[in-house]
Amino acid sequence: MMISSLVSRFNKINLKNKTTTNLFLNNIFNNNNNNNNNNRFVSYKSFQTLKTDYKFSEDDEVFQEIKDFKKYEERGNYSAAKSILNRSLSMVESTIGAKHPITLNVLFRMVNLELIIGDLSSAERYANQVISRLKNNTNLTTNDIDSQYLIPTLNYLLICSQYQGDTEKCFKIIDEINEIAKKNNDWELLISTLLNKAIILSLDCNESADKLYKELIELSKQKLNENDKLNESILSNYACYLHSNGNNDELAEQLYKKSIELAELNKNDIELVNILSNYGEFLFDSDQFDKAEPILDKAISKSELVYGRNNPKVGTILYILGKLNRDKRNLAFAEGFFNKCITIFEDYKNQTKRKEQERQLLNQNDTNYHYQPGKRERELRINKEVDIDFGNVLWDYAQMLRDKGRLKEAENLEQRARKLNSFEDD
Fold first, then answer.
1. pLDDT per residue over 354-388, tens digit each?
2. Which listed residue, 1, 13, 132, 168, has the most CB atoms within 10 A of its CB?
3. Rg of the Cα trace of the chain?
4. Which InterPro entries does the entry mention (predicted)?
5. How far apart are CA 280 and CA 266, in angstroms?
6. HEC letters along the chain
């Protein structure tokens, strides 16, 4: 399982109070999310280049232990997988050496596993072991060290630092990656890494993000093809930043439109769903209801095509449409959108619960290892994201019902919302 797919991070920022929320940090580690009525959000989407991935080879799969490790990892039995991988690491270190490429391959599997489990400190420790073993490694060329090993290792460390909230360390790692990119004239790596820095600054509401986005636009014009997918990511994230600050709505709208054009041209539907959703939220936030509605309808159509009709991403867009119709006083339509959204989130949570029960049942038949539920970063992030949006839609729906005098229904929804998030009444 490649880490870049696990950390295609969707971070949300509160527009009303200009307070940032990194979903993984604040809502998983701190479990602290305050609700205010009519909160509006935008989503930043980081860019992952393939060059930041470690390419797992099959060289070390000649060992039966690695095959066993993969089996238990896929089943979610991370305790067993880790035990087997530790044994494999000891074996290859003692037989072929600590710096051999096969040994490094096994070490990368350990880093990857620790990130899946959610043990960031252990993942960081193993990643630093890789870096220390790369020094003075005569088995590898400088180019191999940079492209195959060092860049992916630094990317792992960047993930650990960001999720631990260590912004200063994040920027040091980004600078190190950029030095390698400059040395190798790798402009895609350089620009994508700077974009992720701009997103981190945006989440902190740091005004220097504006300057960096402008530099990225100029740099991409000079060094990238006009239709490079990085361009739409730069423009859409800059639009999110301007949207969140609310100080240049005209430029934000232009950037949203251009990024949509590029995403459609590149047939990048995953990015397009995110851009359309943010643009629709922007139009809603700007009280441009008539323009927002067709954009959100398009976002739903694309989201259903990419993720399926009952995916939580569809539910999130339906939530925006519910708020839009509520503010337009189309209360019957608003209620329909809220109820559909609630159904999608409930089905997702029930499906997630069933899968977890099935996984536990599968592992109960294993007499050699005791099943311990792993904290899959991606699953945990998406599940918490659903809890946040689910709680918000329940709360907003409840307030609408209160206004209509349906107090008993409203109180029931508010109680359900409080179980999902730590809400404070206004």
1. 776 666 666 555 544 433 333 444 455 566 678 88
2. 13
3. 23
4. TPR-like_helical_dom_sf
5. 21
6. CCHHHHCCCEEEEECCCCCEECHHHHHHHCCCCCCCCCCCEEEEECCCCHHHCCCCCCHHHHCHHHHHHHHHHHHCCHHHHHHHHHHHHHHHHHHCCCCCHHHHHHHHHHHHHHHHHCCHHHHHHHHHHHHHHHCCCCCCCHHHHHHHHHHHHHHHHHHHHHHCCCHHHHHHHHHHHHHHHHHCCCHHHHHHHHHHHHHHHHHCCCCHHHHHHHHHHHHHHHHCCCCCHHHHHHHHHHHHHHHHHCCCHHHHHHHHHHHHHHHHHCCCHHHHHHHHHHHHHHHHHCCCHHHHHHHHHHHHHHHHHHHCCCCHHHHHHHHHHHHHHHHCCCHHHHHHHHHHHHHHHHHHHHHHHHHHHHHHHHHHCCCCCCCCCCCCHHHHHHHHHHHHHHHHHHHHHHHHHHHCCCHHHHHHHHHHHHHHCCCCCC
Task: Supply the pTM of this predicted model.
Answer: 0.77
Cα torsion 197, 161, 159, 148 to 10°: value is 90
Tokens of 352: 């997630």
Question: What pLDDT does residue 7 have?
Answer: 33
Cα 380 to Cα 365: distance, rounded to the nearest angstrom: 25
Q: Which CATH number fits domain 50-185: 3.40.50.300, 1.10.443.10, 1.25.40.10, 3.40.50.970?
A: 1.25.40.10
Burial of 398 (0-12, 13-18, 19+ CB in 10 A): buried
List the domain boundaries for the chain: 50-185, 308-426
Low-confidence ranges of the chain (pLDDT < 70): 1-53, 55-62, 139-144, 146, 356-384, 421-426
